[in-house]
Request: fold
Amino acid sequence: MTGRPSLVQINGRKLRNQMLLTLRCLVLVAVLWGLTACGTATLQASTEYQTVTPSADGIGRVYLGREIAQTMGHQGAGWLDRPSRVLQERPQVAIAALDLSPTDIVADVGVGTGYFARRIAPLVPQGKVLAVDIQPEMLAMLQAEEAKGIENVEPILGQPNNPNLPPTSIDLALMVDAYHEFANPREVMEGVVTALKPGGRVVLAEYKAENPMVMIKRLHKMSVAQVRREMAAVGLNWVKTDDRLPEQHLLFFQKPA
Reply:
């Protein structure tokens, strides 16, 4: 029996080994959790773009924790002018909430076929609407409607990273169901802020991400918190959130005077 470990010694070694293994596992879990938490915080806090595997409806480009949605092409333009939009989204209520003055210069950024631009133009008879879109096909559709008698809508072909608006030229920038599709939201908004007069306003209409009953694809909806985070990143001050619309938030921001 001499030189051979006793049963007590063997069990003691097994217990120590099990304790060491458990401790190592706990340390590994803590390290992995810390890395994940740090990575998430960085993803949410960084104003630099990040790349991920694209979602079904996304472009794989992340800004402030949000994957940017694919842009709706001009082929789907008919959806913008659908008759049901009047009751479904109540656009006239949204326009009334803008509290426009007759002399206002309004930039409709991501104008599409001009659904809102055409309805705003008569309300700013001494001003005008700068209709910005990156798709020339959309602007061609807008101009076809403009030929029916609207004279104070000016089409502007923007770029994915630049709205091409003149500096200090606009009183209000409006983006209706468009901002979430901007491939370069920071650069576009920096261009918008430059174009705003001191004290100028930005209004975004975005489908309510907080409401699962809004039957819009996930990446084409935004929460109030996310919109406020992204507008703050370009120096805009939140003024109010108007939730009178059935499916969309109306979020109001202002450039410092």
